Amino acid sequence: MLNRARRLLFLGLALAFPAFAPAMAQTLDTIKQSKTIRIGYITDEKPFSFKKADGSPAGYTIDLCRRIADEVGHNVSGLKKEYVETTLADGFGAVENGKVDLLCGATTINLERRESVDFSQPVFLTGASALLRRDSPDYLQVLFLDKQPVSAVDLKSPAQSSIGVRAGTTTGATLRDAIGPDVPQTRIVDFATHEDGLKALEDRRIDAYFADRALLIGLADRANNRSALELGSRLFTHEPYGIAVRRDDSTFRLLVDRTLTDFYTSNDFPKLLKTYFGAEAPALRSEIMMQSIPE
Fold first, then answer.
1. Coil, strand or helix at 295
2. Is 3.40.190.10 the CATH number for 2-125+240-291?
């Protein structure tokens, strides 16, 4: 209750006295004037952000953004949530240009992106890996599944081998580093969406699909023949996900982080993790709590 009262006092002061810090409180000023908080979301990043059958947005990160919006709503009477569908390529520009207040999805925090936007504290931790068919080339089995090669032939790439990756993500460069000297023999194919990559894998147009492992789990579950696929066990990156917000607005970012910290320590957080990640929820909670910002 004390933490809740402190946050409400902080938010009330930020909204009531914007003249004391016009640059820092610009997001809250805009929300107060319009009585609308704009939540940007990326539709093909299940279970983090996606569209339900009725067209409404859903997902783990969407639910976190809704909690942030509810926190703002305690001091903005009649606050409305406006959901803005966007893409990964356009989402950061939408935040930077003030078209959305929160960007929700499977969005990796990195220094390059922080040149144009800011981020909340981490909301999830994962790493890049691959989804393969069980009959994918042996060298990919060695590379992504940490299988021991039977012979030197297992380490070589066949001439027509292809690996898919979603265009515009941070994983493309990681993939090129991972396959190292086999780059000339391995074709990297860009896809507009993760669903397109999954279809290409199942249609045998590519031999593996490379993305953040958390996303690959969801893709595998939506495959036509799950038993024909294998999920990579080796992680090639450390990928902390965050909610993107506008730069140079520390007041709003602080509100976001305080809301997340409070939620992480509540009884509702493990329930949310279980909803989207099942049996992995306890381990995920421990990882997120290790990276969270204390009150």
1. coil
2. yes
